[in-house]
Design brief:
Layout lengths: L11 H9 L9 H4 L12 E3 L1 H14 L2 H4 L3 E3 L17 E7 L4 E7 L3 E7 L3 E5 L2 E4 L5 E4 L5 E5 L5 E7 L1 H6 L5 E3 L7 E2 L27 E2 L1 H14 L6 E4 L14 E7 L4 E4 L6 E7 L2 E5 L2 E5 L4 E4 L5 E5 L6 E7 L1 H7 L21
Parallel strand pairs: 7-12
Antiparallel strand pairs: 1-20, 2-3, 3-10, 4-9, 4-11, 5-8, 5-10, 6-7, 6-9, 8-13, 14-15, 15-22, 16-21, 17-20, 17-22, 18-19, 18-21
Bound molecules: fe (ii) ion.
């Protein structure tokens, strides 16, 4: 596909005649639609410093009462898509949400899937479908599509969390909407349902329960302990990484986005493979240097960055003494379901014939 004709090569009256009948010539835009070798993403590798955004988020707490915001969120928008699109990658929306002591965010449900990762503060909780999920730093709490959820805060300091949603995709599908509801009756507290212990499931009368989302809160202390144990058990293991899964099915915790916890050993540099999905990285503990293509981000605790699909990611733990912990979200479940997933490996930066490894 070389030297294809341009729109301006065509007579203006011909283009006008096409336009009047809602017709468009394909060849001037064919290479943009089907570029050679790899996609040309709009998503730009971007980072956000928590220290820099935190004062602006707290200021939002002064400027806008919760009643006027419903959800008091600053969106981590990707400039490659245009900030007004409120999206980070094709399928990922990221927002930092602030809840002040005594505030409540009313019950609602919506078609996009959401998760939150708690960044700071104690005493807040999310109630999801009648299950009260306490929020402590690093916890991952799911609010899957269609499930009622609301937030409250009985503590004394501001609570902040990172929202991760598949909103851009669901919006693009023209399937995004919400419904408001009444405050939920709390029927149980997370962590008491039997799912939070690895390898064990409630099976009354030998039958697995049929709940689609049996586990809604993944406590950071459990994920952190599992990463430590994995690192100790396999000292040569290069990528000390866990996937958040649905314990009933063993599949990804949600349908569209995937969620992972990664531990970098002290001083470790980890080259991640070049894969088709876009991804985001959020530092839970420690400080890392993050390299992708021609960019380097120095990420401290609670900092976040994103990278488009088909790009490399090299993470270095800047501490020689302590491990670093990173939360990752990506579009891999979506890519797999669509048959688009590629893993081009770690040394294949210039390779063009993907689909070789790890599908
Ligand atoms: Fe929500």
């Amino acid at each position: 596909m070389h030297d294809l004709g341009r729109l301006e090569d065509l007579p203006a009256d011909y283009v006008d005649a096409l336009t009047r009948q809602n017709l468009v010539p394909l060849w001037p835009t064919l290479l943009a639609l089907l570029p050679p070798d790899k996609p040309r993403p709009q998503t730009k590798a971007t980072s956000w410093s928590y220290e820099s955004l935190r004062p602006l988020l707290l200021k939002a707490g002064e400027l806008t009462p919760i009643e006027k915001a419903e959800r008091r969120v600053l969106v981590l928008a990707n400039p490659g898509h245009g900030l007004n699109k409120l999206q980070d990658t094709p399928a990922i929306y990221l927002g930092m949400q602030l809840l002040l002591p005594g505030e409540r965010a009313p019950a609602h449900r919506h078609t996009p899937n959401a998760v939150r990762v708690i960044v700071e503060g104690e005493g807040a909780y999310t109630t999801v479908e009648g299950e009260r999920c306490p929020m402590t730093r690093g916890d991952l709490i799911l609010t899957p599509t269609g499930l009622w959820h609301e937030h409250g805060h009985d503590g004394v300091d501001p609570v902040v969390w990172l929202d991760v949603l598949d909103l851009p995709l669901v919006y693009y599908m023209e399937a995004s909407y919400h419904v408001n509801g009444e405050p939920q009756a709390v029927r149980r507290t997370s962590g008491r349902s039997g799912h939070s212990h690895g390898g064990l499931l409630p099976t009354p009368f030998f039958e697995r329960e049929v709940t689609e989302y049996p586990m809604l809160r993944y406590a950071w202390k459990d994920a952190r302990a599992s990463l430590h144990a994995l690192a100790l058990d396999q000292p040569r293991l290069e990528a000390v990484q866990l996937t958040y899964i649905n314990p009933s099915t063993g599949k990804d915790a949600q349908n569209i986005l995937g969620y992972y916890a990664l531990m970098l050993r002290p001083g470790q540099t980890l080259h991640l493979p070049v894969r088709s999905p876009a991804s985001i990285y959020h530092v839970i503990e420690g400080g890392i240097e993050f390299r992708t293509e021609d960019q380097i981000f120095a990420l401290l605790e609670a900092d976040t960055c994103c990278v488009p699909g088909y790009s490399e990611a090299i993470l270095r733990n800047r501490s020689e003494k302590s491990p670093a912990f990173v939360f990752i979200a990506d579009e891999a479940p979506l890519h797999r379901k669509l048959g688009l997933f590629e893993n081009r490996g770690r040394m294949a930066r210039n390779a063009v014939n993907g689909r070789a490894q790890g599908r």
